[in-house]
């Protein structure tokens, strides 16, 4: 609560008090005054802004007489903020609706692309633009602290050639479902190919911030049977750029994009 001087005097006998709004600091544009009559000057004045309601309590000057007599008024300013939550709620709703539209657009764009293996440069550019717009309305700002990240995810699209192997004939590509699983409580991750190779790799995660992790691979499994200790060079980074209940976007340290959908939130990555 602060006392602020008005920037100009007001008439004691005016029908309404005139308040110079710039004197109330920080209200911003779009503010307007709702004032009682001068006779009820002890009643609060309301200054309405797009973001909040400010209650202004005016105190009379000590002396005031004559039709044109003026005095300096001082006002106490207090505010209570209930409108921000209203506007924030509207924005969240708009962002959710935009995200749903973008997800539909994304799924339509990748449908003929075989997870990205058949994508042309134009296809990749189109998908990239959609994903960037999706990232702008990401509802989870700290994904590593969210339970939505946990579980088994199915790879829908990626730009990683090491996964897609686009130069191989189609029958030699990993054409079965590819999964990635993450558990934030144990900081473990797992990549799993299905038909025809059934290869797996597990990794330890080291949080770098609330969105990015360092990834250190520990074991590979060939045909899901033969364990091989990962070399020291088997490491990287992963940033979660979009996350909700059904879709996740991630970007690797080599610039690759990964888009996945949730298939099993209860899945647990083996500890070793």
Looking at the overall shape, the CATH architecture of the largest domain is Beta Barrel
How much beta, percentage-wise?
Answer: 25-35%
**What is the alpha-carbon Rg in Å?**
30 Å
Total strand segments:
16
How far from one another are the termini? 59 Å
Structural class: alpha+beta
Question: How many separate helices?
Answer: 3
Q: pLDDT under 50 segments (min length 5)?
A: 1-80
Average pLDDT: 78
Output the helix-strand order.
Answer: EEEEEEEHHEHEEEEEEEE
What is the helical fraction, as a range of percent?
10-25%
What characterizes the major β-sheet?
8 strands, antiparallel, barrel
Shape: globular
- Please name the CATH topology of the largest domain: Lipocalin
Overall CATH class of the largest domain: Mainly Beta
**What spatial order of strands do you see in the largest sheet?**
8-9-10-11-12-14-15-16
| Count of individual domains | 2
């Amino acid at each position: 609560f602060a006392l602020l001087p008005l920037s100009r005097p007001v008439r004691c006998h005016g029908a309404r008090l005139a308040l110079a709004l710039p004197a109330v600091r920080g209200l911003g544009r779009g503010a307007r005054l709702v004032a009682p009559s001068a006779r009820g000057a002890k009643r609060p004045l309301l200054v309405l802004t797009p973001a909040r309601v400010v209650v202004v309590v005016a105190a009379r000057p000590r002396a005031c007489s004559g039709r044109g007599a003026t005095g300096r008024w001082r006002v106490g300013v207090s505010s209570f903020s209930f409108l921000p939550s209203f506007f924030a709620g509207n924005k969240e709703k708009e962002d959710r609706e935009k995200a749903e539209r973008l997800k539909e657009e994304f799924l339509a764009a990748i449908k003929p692309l075989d997870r990205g293996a058949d994508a042309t440069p134009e296809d990749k550019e189109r998908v990239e633009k959609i994903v960037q717009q999706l990232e702008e309305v990401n509802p989870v700002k700290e994904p590593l602290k969210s339970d939505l990240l946990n579980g088994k995810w199915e790879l829908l699209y990626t730009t990683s050639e090491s996964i897609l192997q686009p130069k191989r004939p189609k029958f030699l590509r990993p054409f079965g479902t590819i999964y990635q699983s993450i558990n934030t409580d144990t900081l473990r991750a797992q990549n799993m190919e299905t038909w025809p190779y059934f290869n797996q790799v597990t990794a330890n995660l080291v949080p770098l911030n609330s969105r990015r992790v360092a990834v250190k691979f520990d074991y590979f499994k060939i045909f899901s049977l033969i364990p091989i200790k990962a070399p020291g060079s088997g490491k990287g980074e992963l940033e979660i750029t979009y996350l909700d209940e059904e879709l996740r976007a991630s970007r690797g340290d080599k610039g690759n994009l990964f888009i996945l959908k949730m298939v099993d939130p209860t899945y647990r990555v083996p500890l070793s």
